[in-house]
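Q&A log
Question type: sequence-to-structure
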Amino acid sequence: MQIKKINKDELAVYLPQIISIERQVQDHPWSEKIFLDSVGDNYRFYVLVEDDTVLGYAVYDYVLDESTLQNISVAAENQGRGLGRHLLLESMRMLKDELGIVRMMLEVRISNIKAINLYKSVGFAQDMIRKNYYPMSDGSREHGMLMSMCQD
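Response status: OK
Response body:
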């Protein structure tokens, strides 16, 4: 099992698996176009792979020494094995080592308690609540929690 930083050509190879995972685990999945736009300048795209099978992925954007986690997902059948934690910590380490990223930010639905607990356990703290940010399938809106941390 390894975490790889990928470029646009490599994304084309992994994209069918990534789209499949995204549709399995996200209430409002990203489109293929959004994924394709998430490689290149000021973005880092990481995949967690084992024998050419994508187990998870993380997408970040960055400016100077700050980075924002835009999307992180682990295939449903691989959840509960600590892979999300591994992917998060290792991709953050890679961002720090490669780009000098020291401040990490993210936003998460307030109903995603599992993710919030993971982020808190690795050092993220709540900055604020963004009211009515995320769309819900019933047409209502859900609050988002902004979180951040500084890496040593």
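Response note: Helices lie at 8-25, 32-37, 83-99, 113-121.
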